[in-house]
Amino acid sequence: MPKAPEPAPLITVITPTHNRRSQVVRAVESVL
Question: What is the structure's pLDDT at 17?
Answer without folding.
Answer: 78
